Amino acid sequence: xxxxxxxxxxxxxxxxxxxxxxxxxxxxxxxxxxxxxxxxxxxxxxxxxxxxxxxxxxxxxxxxxxxxxxxxxxxxxxxxxxxxxxxxxxxxxxxxxxxxxxxxxxxxxxxxxxxxxxxxxxxxxxxxxxxxxxxxxxxxxxxxxxxxxxxxxxxxxxxxxxxxxxxxxxxxxxxxxxxxxxxxxxxxxxxxxxxxxxxxxxxxxxxxxxxxxxxxxxxxxxxxxxxxxxxxxxxxxxxxxxxxxxxxxxxxxxxxxxxxxxxxxxxxxxxxxxxxxxxxxxxxxxxxxxxxxxxxxxxx
Length: 300
Hints:
The structure is a single chain. By secondary structure, this protein is an alpha/beta fold. It contains twelve helices and nine strands. Strands 5-6-4-7-3-8-9 form a seven-stranded mixed β-sheet, sandwiched between helices.
């Protein structure tokens, strides 16, 4: 029997049963029996988590959408923050062309009279809302340079939203610029999607260096919640070897859940729905439900 660590590094109240005789998962570790999450009696204050990797195409947006939807299925209130000027999160939730949006996270960051309630929109998932983005956000990085306390602008913008949600998931852009620093400064934890591919492993050292600098200079409470293996294909030796290297490098920080490569994820994106809605019985949907149980046990 093992206990997970809470956000403060101490032991959490959630106890996970681990039987050494259990079958090994893709990470070649016995898979714990994660408890079925209970529906909370009250909501908030939210734990803020940055979903971050400076490499593009590793599954950040897919993870933000589908982990959020799976957590909402567990009775949690979720706020997704599209913090990428490409607006992929907004598109992936069926919000059409982000350029047509009148008010976005850009307004919330830079206009003193804009509140989060003015920007937030509902999604098709009950209990999950969105702060959308579009190309206007690309100009925010330049404008923020001249702001006092520029690293904390997003933290202040989300402050009044926290009591209304259980988790706020920030979909970061694929870079390590000022917007990503803002996301890390606002967050209590970082979830790192990492493609099971050799070149994805090579770039993670720079991300870890950035996280360490933020921990040392801006946000000492920031922790790495976990590394998530994505685009895994058990049929290929390469992805199995890369996942093994990820476990060697990060140990228990690697989630037991891995996300398999499947065409159902892009199909769901085109439909503007989470995979849990688009194909609820698919391997991808069940993987994100498993991840939701795992992170709830970790964050309890």
